[in-house]
What we know:
Chain A is an alpha/beta fold.
Amino acid sequence: xxxxxxxxxxxxxxxxxxxxxxxxxxxxxxxxxxxxxxxxxxxxxxxxxxxxxxxxxxxxxxxxxxxxxxxxxxxxxxxxxxxxxxxxxxxxxxxxxxxxxxxxxxxxxxxxxxxxxxxxxxxxxxxxxxxxxxxxxxxxxxxxxxxxxxxxxxxxxxxxxxxxxxxxxxxxxxxxxxxxxxxxxxxxxxxxxxxxxxxxxxxxxxxxxxxxxxxxxxxxxxxxxxxxxxxxxxxxxxxxxxxxxxxxxxxxxxxxxxxxxxxxxxxxxxxxxxxxxxxxxxxxxxxxxxxxxxxxxxxxxxxxxxxxxxxxxxxxxxxxxxxxxxxxxxxxxxxxxxxxxxxxxxxxxxxxxxxxxxxxxxxxxxxxxxx
Amino acid sequence: xxxxxxxxxxxxxxxxxxxxxxxxxxxxxxxxxxxxxxxxxxxxxxxxxxxxxxxxxxxxxxxxxxxxxxxxxxxxxxxxxxxxxxxxxxxxxxxxxxxxxxxxxxxxxxxxxxxxxxxxxxxxxxxxxxxxxxxxxxxxxxxxxxxxxxxxxxxxxxxxxxxxxxxxxxxxxxxxxxxxxxxxxxxxxxxxxxxxxxxxxxxxxxxxxxxxxxxxxxxxxxxxxxxxxxxxxxxxxxxxxxxxxxxxxxxxxxxxxxxxxxxxxxxxxxxxxxxxxxxxxxxxxxxxxxxxxxxxxxxxxxxxxxxxxxxxx
Lengths: 371, 313
């Protein structure tokens, strides 16, 4: 069984090395990456992985953010040119954590009739920035008892999907779904969590807000989500620092959130990356000092040492927690369907035409007010 | 972005003054109000009008129903005053934005939504003690208690803000009636603090309040009291007791809720239970029926026949 991960990146040098190393050690066999004009050293890191035979790099330097087209192209290439059986369409800030075995193991266990596996999104929250590595700082994740359905919020529960390879696949925006796919989704089992680190530092948050807004303005839709709009608004109106603080958790908020069960301390990724991090004696000579930002590979590749990651199943309490989280995810899905239905009804127009008397009354009132 | 508030009711001058002052500091640009029979209220309204913050209409005819009066004001706000969003408020309502001003909160709403709901907060009546209504209104019902008291129909109490529309028809509760505007459901970026007015029932004694706080049916909420304390200026030589927006020393701050605050609030939002599976199924069935009727209409049939004709050639 071959598992290919696709990834679309732009200026992700603070995280991309860890992201690639983690997945290659977690069961991903190969990576297809598209770089959209990075200028921060991301390309150097991607090229390092390409030289080692783990990655194929595509370049799209244009300012027209054709996310759907580029991700779909990679997903199709995974099927046609790289022999994939399963495909993960990932972002640079996502770490796909398998429950009970490697990514390859859990996907191999999926019955043949199912072709889509939804993965939990686990949002990790930024902490006051001290310049340290994101995974060392960000060990608190949101575990709300109800979905936060704020359309302008960054933490709305929404699954990402892994899918079987398909030469005709069409990946929806954000890789949250496939469009018109014949694959049946396996909705009742959640063997994978997507550990998500979208906001990592004030500078990264600010830069991302600008890039995403520029990207979405160039699309046919012409604008991003409420979250993108708000982040960009904060940036353009000069309160991005306040915005970042509102999304991060200080010590007092962390203690309150953990006590209320809204935040969970989750050190899995931190510990995994510690296990993978190369010691000075392990760092290959040719990788030292080659990057302008010193960002080249700092983590072990698979096979370069004993298996360092452990994905063994966790406790019954943990399983119960996952079941509760699944209920929240389901509630969020209901809200999305309700909003879709609202929009559909609005497009259909009023359910009955107003009577003549109502129309005349409305006209008379309009004359009184406007005239 | 221009935000207007229409104001109707029969409150005393003190509460009308506080209401207008609060909203002008919270992000409302202009108020549209009707003239009142009470000369003290009229004096307050005139004072705000003279300062350029209020558009004052003549007192309505007694027979005109409230929704019609609010409709007139909401239309005027859109057509003459250029309002992008309109809040239809009553005297004892204080619309509290969750982070940023009302204008900022509404500006962040994705453009596909034309209606934003507000989480209702009902303050309980307490015995008069010589202080103002807002000063002594510091205890409100919890959301769980509200849901229980409404028999699970708490969503009927939600406040409504809508985009400016010169043709809007406002129904009961301040919501546009028969409108094609899409409402933002299951998230309420504004809370509407409703103070007890004439028909709010008997005042609670201190023992009842203590009991309610202990069993979670009541919660302490001093936000409005503190905000109005901040705005109140002593010894003003004008009918209003509060600072105007231009008097910047009294600016209100609406802190952005933390992620933990939002997650806790999400639980309250869920209690309001706007998502009703059975009702969704009924509405889906109705939408399908209407879609089928459209597809069977003359135009659709003609297009289908034309398509077949052209296809055959």
